[in-house]
C-alpha cells in the first residue's frame, strides 16, 4: 500500500459546538478520513492560554471527544487523541521556539485581538500559541490541515517555521497546506459577525428543533428586503448562505428564485432551511446522547489514539534530535 499522506487538525475543548464550527472545519475533517491518515487532536494545552476552570477541563475534553465522534469522526479510520497525552507536542514546540523570531508572533492577528480583549491576561502561552500549533502539525509530518479561514495566518506561520527548520538543519518536515471547507464562513444570527459563542449569535449542534426555530425566525436576512412583496437579494442574505451549507440544489435554487421574484417570504425560506438543517443535526444529537452514556468506550478510544499518535511522534522526535545534534544515550 502507498503510504497515505497525513492530516492533522486541532480542536479546542471550549464548550458547545455551533453550526459555524460544523460547516467551517468539521465537515472537511470528516470527509478527509477515507483518503488520508487523519490525526485529530483535542488541544487542551491551547485552551489553557485563556482563563479556564481546571474543574471543568476534564468534562470539556470528554464533551469535545463526544461531539466530534457524534458528528462523524470515526475512530476506526482516524486517530482521535488529547494533545497533553502525547508529550512530544510540547517537546517539539520548545525546539521550534528557539528558531521562531518573536517579531513573527507579535504580528499574529489572534494574538493582537486577545491582547486587546484581555489586557490583564497576556501570558507567554498566548504569544506562543502558533508555535505549539505548528508543533501539533509537524510532529506527525502532516501535509494537510483542515481549518476554518480564521486559522490561515497560523498556518502561514507554521510554513515559515518549517522552512526555517529545514534550511537550518536539513530537510525534515513537509510544508503543510491548509484545506478550507466548502462553505467557509457562516455568519451569526445577526447576519453581520462571524458565528461565535462570545457574541451570542449561534445555533448550537445540540439544540432542539423548537429552539433552532426560535432563533432562525428572528435571524437577520437581506436588510434591503423590508416587506414580503419586495424582491430580495439572496447573495446578501445570511440565511441563503446557510441554505448553501445545509440544503440540496433543488431547495437552494427554489429559494433563490422565489426570493428574487418576491414569491416567498423570508419566513417560508427559513422554514425550508430549518427542515434541512435539523435533518442533518438530529442523527448527530442521537449519537451524542448514546456516546455520553458510555464514558468507558470514549476513554478507550482516546487511550488508543494516544498510543497510535505516540508511535509517530516518537519517530519524528528521534529524527529531530539527530538533526539538531542532541543524541540520546540509549
Ligand atoms: N488554533 C486552532 C483553533 O483555534 C486549534 C488548533 C490547535 C489547531 N492546533 C492545531 C488547528 C493544529 C489545526 C492544526 O481552532
UniProtKB/TrEMBL annotation:
Name of one Pfam family that matches: tRNA-synt_1b
An example molecular function term from Gene Ontology annotations: tryptophan-tRNA ligase activity
Source species, domain of life: Bacteria
Reaction(s) this enzyme catalyzes, per UniProt: tRNA(Trp) + L-tryptophan + ATP = L-tryptophyl-tRNA(Trp) + AMP + diphosphate + H(+)
Enzyme class, first EC level, given as a word: ligase
Amino-acid positions noted as binding L-tryptophan in the UniProt annotation, renumbered to this chain: 136
Gene Ontology terms: biological process: tryptophanyl-tRNA aminoacylation
Subunit field text: Homodimer.
PANTHER family from the UniProt entry: TRYPTOPHAN--TRNA LIGASE, MITOCHONDRIAL
Protein name: Tryptophan--tRNA ligase
Species: candidate division WOR_3 bacterium SM23_42
